[in-house]
Amino acid sequence: MNTDVLVIGGGNAALCAALMAAEGGASVLLLEASPRAWRGGNSAHTRNLRCMHDAPQDVLVDAYPEEEFWQDLLKVTGGRTNEKLARLTIRSSSTCRDWMRSHGVHFQPPLSGALHVARTNAFFMGGGKALVNAYYRSAERLGVRVRYEAPVNRLEIDAQGRFAAAWVGSERITAKACVLAAGGFESNREWLREAWGVNERGEWPADNFLIRGTRFNQGVLLRHLLEDHGADRIGDPTQAHMVAIDARAPLYDGGICTRIDCVSLGVVVNREGRRFYDEGEDFWPKRYAIWGRLVAQQPGQIAWSVIDAKAIGRFMPPVFPGVVANSLPELAAKLGLDVNAFMGTLQDYNAACRPGSFDHTRLDDCRTEGVSPPKTHWARPIDTGPFYAYAVRPGVTFTYLGLHTDETAAVRFGNVPSDNLFVAGEMMAGNVLGQGYTAGVGMSIGTAFGRIAGTHAARAAQAAGNTQRKEHHAVA
Q: Is 213 within the bounds of a domain?
C-alpha cells in the first residue's frame, strides 16, 4: 500500500496532522492502534485548550497575552523548556480556533466549577470525545483513509534519516512522508518500572501508578526510533503529566473524572500521617499536576486529601464518595493511619493557620506560620465536622521522554533533521515540557505541532513526487 503522507496515531496531534496534510493536497492514510470505539487516545479525555489572546474572544474573557502564558509555562517547568518551541506553541494557540471550528469543533463557556480558567482556556463543547469525533468526520470528508487496530511495530529509515516504510505486522506500507503521533509510553508498565526503578524503601513506585488515559500508548515506536534508529531524544523518562487521582480509579481510561480537586482546600498526608508539601502554593490549574509526582515519592505511593465541611461545594466533586467521619481521630482510624501521628499533624497545622480573608479565586492571605511544610494560601483550620478524606495515587496522563525536534517538527538524527519524517503530540512534548504542567497546554502543543507536521509532510510528499516525475521524464 502506498500513500503520500502516512500518519501514525489517532489522537488530536495525529488528526491535526492528517487534516493539514489533506488540505495541502496530499493523499493521507492514518493508522490507529486502537479499535474504533477507543479511538482518539488521551485526547478523548481532554476538556480544553490553553489559548493566548490579547483581548476578550467569544468564550475567553479578559486577556491572556503571550508573555503571561510564557511565564506560566516557565514557572511550572522550572525553566526546562525550549523557549523557541514554547513560544511557537503559544502563538499558534492564538490562531488555531477558527481552523478547529472549520473542522467541526465547537467551544463553550467553562462550567461553574472551572470559572477560574475562563481567561486562559477554551473548553470543547462535549469534551475531547466530541473534538476527536469531529476531526474524524472532517478527515473522512477530505478523503483521509483511516485504519483501526493497526499498530505499527517498526519503521524503515535509511542512513540519511529518510522514512521509507512502516510495518503493521507483516504488512509493509510505503509513503512519501510520515508523521509520528503515536503517544508516549505511559501504558507500558515495564518501561515505567525501568524508568523509576526501586526507591530507598525497596518499592517499585511504578507498580502503584494508575493510567488516566488509553491503554494503547505502549511507546513501541518511540523506543524503536530511539534504540534502533538512534533518533535524537529529549526529556527525562521519569517526568510526566502526573496527577493525584482517586486511588479507586480504574487502571486505564479513568480520565478527568478521577481527579481529586480539593487539595488546595485542606491538607494532604502520607501513610505516616504527615504532610509533605505546600497545598496552597498556587492556583490549582497551574499546580495540580505536581501532586501525582509528589505522591509517587511517598511511602506506598499513596496519600490522603483531607478537608472539613467548610470546603464542601468549593471544588469539582469527585465521582467516588470520600471517607466521612464526625471527628478527626475517627477519620484517621477509618483510613488505617496512626491516630497520634495524624492528630499531631492536624493540630500543628491548625495552630499554625493565621486569620485572613479567605478567597479561593485569588492568592489570598490565609497562610500558616511556624509549621513545615507551610501552606502559603487558603490555609484555614480543619475543625468543622463532618470531615472527609480521599485516598489518592499517581495518575499518569502522558510521559515526557520523546523525540528532539525543531520548528519544522522534523525528527532529528545526529542533530540533522529528516526531510520526510515528522513528529507531533506526546512523542515530542518533552521539547516544551521538561517537567510540570499547566492545564490545557498538552492540547496546545499537540494542535500546534500536529498542524506543523502535517503541513511539512504534505510539502515533503509533493517534493518527492516532483523528484520522481523529473526522474521519470529524464529516463523517458
A: no
